[in-house]
Structures are given as C-alpha cells and as structure tokens.
Amino acid sequence: MAKKVVILGAGYAGLVCALELNKLTTAQEAEIILVNKHEYHQLVTQLHEPAVGAKEEKDVTISINSILGAKKIKFVKDVVVSIDKTAKEVTLESGKLSYDYLVIALGSETEYFGIPGLKEYSYTLKSVNQANRIREHIEQCFQTYNQDKKDSKLTFVVGGAGFTGIELVGELADMLPQLAQKYNVPKEKVKLLNVEAAPMILPGFDEGLVAHAKQSLEGRGVKFIIGTPVVQVEPGIVHLKTGDTIPTDTMIWTGGVRGIPIVAESGFETEPRGRAKVDEYMRALGEEDVWIIGDSCFVLSPNGRPYPPTAQISTQMGENAAVNIYASMKHVKKEAFAPVLLGAVASLGRKNAIGSLGKKMKATGWLAYRVKDASKYRYLAKIGALLKSK
Length: 390
Ligand SMILES: Cc1cc2nc3c(=O)[nH]c(=O)nc-3n(C[C@H](O)[C@H](O)[C@H](O)COP(=O)(O)OP(=O)(O)OC[C@H]3O[C@@H](n4cnc5c(N)ncnc54)[C@H](O)[C@@H]3O)c2cc1C
Description:
Layout: E1 3-8, H1 12-24, E2 30-36, E3 40-42, H2 48-51, E4 61-63, H3 64-68, E5 73-77, E6 80-84, E7 89-92, E8 95-98, E9 101-104, E10 108-110, H4 118-121, H5 128-148, E11 155-159, H6 163-182, E12 191-196, H7 207-219, E13 222-226, E14 230-234, E15 237-240, E16 245-247, E17 250-253, E18 257-259, H8 261-265, E19 276-277, E20 290-292, E21 297-298, H9 311-330, E22 344-347, E23 353-357, E24 361-364, H10 365-388
Parallel strand pairs: 1-2, 1-9, 2-5, 9-20, 11-12, 11-17, 12-13, 19-21
Antiparallel strand pairs: 3-4, 6-7, 7-8, 10-18, 14-15, 15-16, 22-23, 23-24
Helix pairs in contact: 1-9
This protein binds flavin-adenine dinucleotide.
C-alpha cells in the first residue's frame, strides 16, 4: 500500500521536496499531500520589488495548482494548526490529516528580540500580503504629505542591514524619488535611513563588495546608522540606544527571523530561536519519520556556523529530504545533507548589485544585477525540470 507523505508548506523547501519525491516514487509507493495556507507559491526572494511597486503581485506568485497540474501530488489549501507526532496526525483549520512520513517546511517568522513596540508598530517583509501593505502605506504617505506637511511621513526607516534589509533599501532608494515626483513632494524632504545593531552591513559578504554597496546606496541618499540598536518603537517614533530618536511613520523591520512556533509547540527539539534541530538526513532529532527543512530548521555547516536561512539552502534541503524519505521507504542507505554553495548576490536597486561566486569571483554593478535577476529564472527552470519528470 502507498505510504502517505504529508508536506507542510509549499515554499522553496516544501515545493521542491514534493516535486522531487514525485519524481522518485510511483503512485503505488507514495501518496503525496502538499498543504499550504495560500493557493499560490511565493517567490519570497523578490518581495522587495512589489513592496515598493517595482513589480506586481502576479510577478512574484505562482498558482500551486498550475504548477502541480496532473501530477500525483494532492494540494490542500489550509492552515496548519498543530502536529501530534505520537498519533502521527496534523490538525488543520478545517480537519485532520494522518501521515506515514511528515515534512515540515513552514518557513520562519520575524524575530523582534523583545524590543518594546517593535512588533506592534513596524512593517515586516515576509509575504506578498506584507509587501502589498508596505507599498500601499508608502504611497499613502506621499499622497497625504501635502495636506499636513508632516516630515515623519517622508522619513523611511529600514531596521536591519542583512540581505533583506539592504535589498529593500536599494529598491526604496530608486523608487522614493519617483514617488516624490509623482505626488509633487519636494525630493529633498525625503529621508531613507538604515539602522543596524551590528558593526557592519551585509554580514558574510566580502569587504570590498560591502564597501561598493555602501557607497552606491549612500550615493542615492541612504543614511546608514550602524552599530546602533533600536531599543523601542512607539507610534511615529523610533528610539535608538544612543538616546537619539527618529520621527517616522514608516519603520520596516528586517532584523532577523526565528522558527515557526508550531515546531516547538509540537514537541520537536529546537535551538533558542525556535528552529528545529535535525540530524544529518534532515530528520527532526530523535524522529524516524519527520523531516524539518528550510528556514524552520537549524543546521551547522562544516565550519561550525549555521547555514544562513536562504532559498538556495532551502531548496537543497527539500531535495535531500525527498531522497531520504524514498530511502526510508526502500530501506536503503540515506544521504547526508551536503549543500553546494554557489555564492550570493544581493541587489541594490534597479540597476546595481553585488555578488560572489566561490572565494575568487566577484561582481558589482549591472552584471551582478543581471545574475541576481537570472537567479529567479534558474529557480523556475529547476521547478520546470522537476515537472517534466513523471
Ligand atoms: C525580501 C527577501 C529577499 C530574500 N532574498 C534572498 C536571496 O536573494 N537569495 C536567497 O537564497 N534567499 C533569500 N531570502 C531568504 C529566502 O526567501 C528564505 O530563506 C526562503 O523563503 C525559505 O524557504 P522556506 O521554504 O523554508 O520558507 P518559505 O519560502 O517562507 O515557505 C513557507 C511556506 O509555508 C507556508 N505556511 C507558513 N505557515 C503555514 C501554516 N501555518 N499553514 C500552512 N502553510 C503555512 C507559507 O505560506 C509558505 O508558502 C530572502 C528573503 C526575503 C524576505
């Protein structure tokens, strides 16, 4: 009889896992059920673009049913509420699902580090809906500025200078002057600030590339406030550890992620930031039939540092989990997770980016931007290739 494999989350990790498992198994071997709270798959790595109106929602979402077509993967649009690993059962908002094998790929949520007011009074950028909210809010700030001339409406603060924060700052640096022109607002009144607690921006990137990024963004009016933690946020005001305050109607927080609470609440072992501990085969620690992949888990790389929460790593975890679920079904040797790291590219707005491939190859400017843009197509081609099989 076919084994029932339930995959929770159709993001980078869950979708690739489902498609890879579909490729490996026959309908007699596996019944694959993919659960996701939206009917679409989101290209999360592009969200900074719709957040400023540079792209539309349709450019960063793909209908899951249109991806799966007639494949033997059953899609269930529902919200996961809890997991009972003893009963091998998942509770959804509208019912229950039993499983033989479970894959948890529910992504991450925003980490607020307990900073008072941050959760209540900031925007976040982790979904298409949140990107839409940011775009509508920014547009409204410009639309209404000439009514009351409140400067806080034209002061935009991005908290966090990692990948997400810097890519968003780059888009804003290009789009805010265009909005000023559209709404007849004085350009010199518009302020764009990036606040970061760590001593530098873009941790993990080569120093020369970071310098290029900083210079490019400063050249477009971005003010960096580095090595300065945010300590409180109130409506209309951001407080910094230095005692300084920033009057602003727009605080967008990209300062960190933590695991999705369902994982710890369901009794899986987690590290302090709520990400699941897994074994070398991506199974939840101490579990034979539960895999936890993507941003929901925590894996140390050979250099002793955790792999960063990226789409690049998440898709490879999805592939590895599929291979190991199949190995479990067939009682054959499993494969330890050993990702291939291609490098990283961060966009700096519409025409610029920084990127590295391995230790030696580095690129900046338009060329790097094209590579970043192509990464979306590389990912879509990968999904396409998986779809062609079976
Ligand atoms: C703006 C931005 C830019 C980025 N740029 C890059 C980049 O250039 N390169 C890179 O490698 N990484 C980048 N990242 C990081 C990357 O997007 C994440 O690491 C990746 O999305 C994680 O994949 P995942 O499958 O674990 O989670 P996700 O892609 O978040 O997928 C999780 C899925 O689970 C669903 N879900 C969640 N909770 C529930 C529930 N309770 N019930 C049902 N469904 C649920 C969600 O709807 C979603 O479909 C970026 C992130 C952001 C925010």
